[in-house]
Each structure stands twice: as C-alpha cells, then as structure tokens.
Amino acid sequence: MHSLIIHMSSATARRPNVDHLLGVLPGAEVVEAVRGADVVQAGRVDVRPGDLHHPRYPFPIGGGEVGCFLSHRACWARIVEADWPYALIVEDDFHPDAQLWPDVLGLVETNATADSYIRLPAKNRERPAHVAATKGAAQLFLPRRIGLQTVAQVVGRNAAQRLLEASEVLDRPVDTFLQMHWVTGQPVHTILPNGVQELTGELGGSTIQKKAPKQGRLLREWNRAWYRTQVALRPQRP
Questions:
Q1: Which of the ends of the chain has fewer CB neighbours closer than 10 A, N or C?
Q2: What is the pTM of this model?
Q3: Which residues are within 8 A (CB) of 7 and not within 5 positions of it... i.e. 6 or more apart?
Q4: Which residues neighbour 38 within 8 Å (Cβ) at sequence distance 6 or greater?
C-alpha cells in the first residue's frame, strides 16, 4: 500500500510529525499542500458561492479551504496517474495509535478496492447503516451520514477518478463535498474505532480554519443547522 502525506513545506512546526509518518506509514511520500489564497488570487481555480449543488452551501469558501480541497485533488490525481489500486491519504497533523492501527490496516488490506473511499475520522460521530467487516476492535461500516474532516482516508483509483470529475468547480470545502454521495456517486465507508488522533493543537493550530466574527453569529448557526438538516435528509443506504 502507498501513503500520501499532505504537508505545506513552510509549516515547519509540523515537519517532525511528517518525518515520523514517513517512517511508520507504508510506502509514504509527501505531497506539497496547495496555498489556496495564491491560487484564488491568480485566478487558477473556478470557485462558486455555494450554489453548484443542492443543498446550497450557505458560507463563503475561504482560501485555506480552497487550498485543502486542491491538495486532496492532487492526491486523487497522484493515485490515478500512478495506477495504484488505492492509497492512504493523511494530513500532516495525523497520528495513529500503535495498538489499534494494525487492525485498521488489516481491515483496509482485506477490504479496500479501486472503488473504495474509507474514512478514518478522529472523532467518533458516525453511526452504521451496514457493517461490512470487523478486525479486533475496529469495524468497517457504511455510515448513514458521512462525517466531516479529512485527517485520514483510503481512496481507491476509480473513486479518485470519480471525485476528480465531480470537483472541477469548487463551491464548498472538501469534507462537505464528500458528504454529498448523491452528487459524487461515491459511497463512503468508515472505520471506527481506529485510534486516529489529530494533533492540530500540539502542532501550532489549524492552517485552514478562520475564526468567525461575532457579528452575525446567530445567523451563521441557523444556517449551519439548516444545512446539516438537509444533509441528514439524504442518508447513505445499504
């Protein structure tokens, strides 16, 4: 199996963790993260104001979110171009638990295919619609509602091609886009528990998220709740 680590070389506080991951992940290499603000300013990406797909995304997509999306697209393209059956994609604040990680890799190696997209989330918030396999404590399942965040995932070659074709124009963050299985045509599975940790705080904080202004916070929370409800009305089914 191959592994791709998304890392911006200027984020020097994260480099020691990247070096550690290069030593412990199978077939690991670094993919340079995209600086979204530069790409947007240069007009090298087509970004729409949340109106490309339904439900409409109610927030503007920032430069950091654009960069994160394009970084994942670069990994999908790497998988397709290399003709790998699948690969592990992790962000540079990823940290695996030594006890659970072998079971997670075992589930991946016996179940992943070129059509797979398997999330390894740091937060245990997803509930199964169908359990596909288990190994030790780890469970591979199809969640009813796909969770957010992209710290770690296994992406198959065919899945990567589908996602590339569906994301030539951006209108929302990558994790929100991946929730829309009704748009991408890509089922998304999850492995939990998985021992995955996200070392964002320990490595100097997020390189993507920006603090929302206090003004308009109530409207923002209402929009967030409305959007989550719309996504929940479109569950994955076995």
A1: C
A2: 0.93
A3: 14, 15, 18, 30, 31, 32, 33, 92
A4: none
